[in-house]
Amino acid sequence: MPLYFYVLEFVSGLFLANGLPHFVQGVSGHWFQSPFGYPPGVGESSPLSNTLWGSANLAVGFILLWFFTPQGSEAAVGWIVVAVGVLLAAVRLSTYFGRVRAQHGGKVHTRRRPWLDTLSPW
């Protein structure tokens, strides 16, 4: 398999690991840090924006896996590369968000972006 297959399998793991917490927090109705909060990555975004952001990350991760699925005699190596991407992203995200939440006592009180955070389908 070409090297770029392994790179894209690794990247798919990064997207999958990043999508899960945003999607889960969003569908649970919790505010959570995202790139759309203020300041980005520290401020919290609405459950809707997190659900959409998590869904987009999961979609990209699964689309990459669809086109670059580990196959053949090197399939085990490919799935290990995906797992390493998931693990590295999970470790990085857990340490980052743990530090942000510890610094702000579990709640980040910042100005929210009303154009995105007040979107509601109901």
What is the topology?
Layout: H1 3-27, E1 32-33, E2 44-45, H2 47-67, H3 75-103, H4 114-117
Antiparallel strand pairs: 1-2
Verbal overview:
The chain is mainly alpha-helical. The protein has one domain. It contains 4 helices and 2 strands. It has a two-stranded antiparallel ribbon with strand order 1-2. Helix 1 packs across helix 3 (75-103). The longest helix is centred in the last third of the chain and has 29 residues, at 75-103. It is elongated, with a radius of gyration of 16 Å. The mean pLDDT is 86.
Notable traits:
122 residues, 2 strands, single chain, mainly alpha, two-stranded antiparallel ribbon
Would you summarize the structure shown here?
It contains four helices and two strands. With 122 residues, the chain is mainly alpha-helical. The chain has one domain.
**Helix content, binned percent:** 55-70%
C-alpha end-to-end distance: 48 Å
* Tally of individual helices: 4
> Structural class, please?
mainly alpha
H/E series, N to C? HEEHHH
Backbone CA Rg:
16 Å
